[in-house]
Amino acid sequence: MYKIAIVDDSEINLALFSALVVKLGDCRPEAFQESLKGLAWCSKNEPDLVIVDYMMPEMDGIEWIKRLRAVAGREEVPILMITANDGRGVRHEALQIGATDFLTKPVDRIEFSARVRNMLNLGSSRKKLADKASWLAEEVKKATAAIHAREQELLFRMSRAAEFRDPETGAHIQRMAHYSQLIADRLGWSAEDQDLILRAAPMHDIGKIGIPDHILLKPGALTREEFETMKTHAALGYELLKGSESAILQTAASIALSHHEKFDGSGYPSGLVGDAIPLFGRVVTVADVFDALTSERPYKKAWPVERAQALLRESAGTHFDPTCVDAFMSCWDDVLTICERYQDAETPRR
Amino acid sequence: MSSSTLYNRAEALERLDGDEELFGSLAELFVAESAGYCRALEAALVAADVAALCREAHTTKSMLATFSYEAGRVVAMELERRTAGGSLDGADALTAQLIAAVKVLADELAKELA
Questions:
Q1: What does the pLDDT look like over A45-71, one tens digit per residue?
Q2: pLDDT: which is higher, B41 or A216
Q3: What tens digit of pLDDT does each residue of A124-180 get?
Q4: Which pTM was predicted?
């Protein structure tokens, strides 16, 4: 049932238009003799069509249409203005402010019915188009979410593949990623960037896939030559991840390449100094080193967190970006919570 | 129904697609409301409210046109035209004529409804 609002100060016109609307069969009239009441109703309800008189005492039809068009969601409602042979100027002004069509008094039933039916059809078509656009937008959203989910799964599996060859554990990956997010939060990053670092950080060591087992899994200290080979994992990870259109992979590539750079320029592979090191890399470096220190490895015991905390402080400005260290220290309770939450089954911590 | 010579009943009815019942309802409303139209016209004239008089003339014109009462509609149109220009010149006489026209049509319709 179509809802048709009729606004006219004349009771006879209201009766006439209401009767003609009822005769259409599938329409229900809502008649208003007071223009303000009609405006209030049309603002709360969504009419399929509005019929409004031009000459009314409280405000004329032009002003009435202007006010209705200003209501959110009423920009497209078809409006039929009833005029009594008013001049062209009135019609032009009405069209400019949003009247859809006109009808001249005295109203002829056949013309009225045809005009109203056409306008209702126009409104229905417009709604169908809007619904289709909305449906399409929803489908695009779903497809994008599916692609995003597949991307996440692939990234997760890539990280897992690296873990299979790396003595470092899945829990380490989880902790350092969450530490990175904590730092990003304290640095005032947007929620999107925090999410980006959380998802990209786990791939920081993916280049270790390309390091021979006898070096990667060696329990003791590496020789100078072996260490040089080990250092190539940063560039290898970058080569593996670079060139993607995915923001996560782009970020992961940057992190892989820069997470062994040091603030004073003594790191590798490029010896970058200070702000020349990508910020994502500077953040991950703090998180990664802290967790490496506090984790047990085949060649060392886990450091107490207080000792690792002290080393971070001492190395702020040399190894680490001091701003990132400050951010990390400023959320120490959260650091400990993450440390507790992501535990390796056989390596009790602290 | 009688065939009035005052207004063009056939034309008015044709616009309503021959719906006698609807015509009767509108006629009843006009009869009931006619005194109100006359009062509004008089009040606007007495107050020398040219905008209100113009609006009332416009409304009355539309009512008279609904019943195809051409002679009355022409008077209303003239009153509206003059007052729309902001002038009350000749408004006394035109208002009186228009009020008389409204009363005549109301009497005629009332007779038909009786």
A1: 989 999 999 888 888 899 999 999 999
A2: B41
A3: 888 888 888 889 999 999 999 998 888 878 877 777 677 677 656 678 888 999 999
A4: 0.56
Using CA coordinates, name the residue in chain B closest to A14. B26
Does residue B59 sit at the A interface (CB-CB below 8 Å)?
yes
Fold of A2-134: Rossmann fold (3.40.50)
Residue A15 touches partner B, C-beta closer than 8 Å: yes
Four-CA torsion A266, A327, A156, A148, nearest 10 degrees: -120
Token representation of residue A40: 């209030």
Instruction: Indicate yes or no: CB of B66 within 8 angstroms of CB of A105.
Output: yes
- Transcribe B75-110 into DSSP letters: HHHHHHHHHHTT--TTHHHHHHHHHHHHHHHHHHHH
Beta bridge partners of A170: none
Fold type of domain A164-341? Hypothetical protein af1432 (1.10.3210)
Domain spans, chain A: 2-134, 164-341
Q: Do B55 and A55 touch (CB under 8 A)?
A: yes
Of A11, A23, A107, the CB nearest to B29: A11
